[in-house]
Amino acid sequence: MKYCFSCKKNLEIRDRPARSAACPFCGADLKVCMNCRFYDEAAYNSCRESRAERVIEKDRSNFCDYFEFRDSQGDTKRDSAEEARKRLDELFGKK
Q1: Which domain holds residue 64?
Q2: Residue 92 or residue 22, greater confidence
Q3: At 94, phi and psi to the nearest 5?
């Protein structure tokens, strides 16, 4: 389920939002870093997609070609830590 980073309300969006798309509940821009699955404050430029160009305003609409809507309201830091732990376990054969 997609959700707005600003008001945390669920959105019924199937396709990638246009740059000018806004949340119908609060009016916040939707195609923003903070709604992207690659957004991670701990990563370089706050983005886990290494090919993406730097975006200064993470809560404003941008032209990023790698934008993919997040599917949950999960904690980004926790998600990255769990993903890293899973990759290490796979690498070293731990189950």
Answers
A1: 1-95
A2: 22
A3: -80, 140
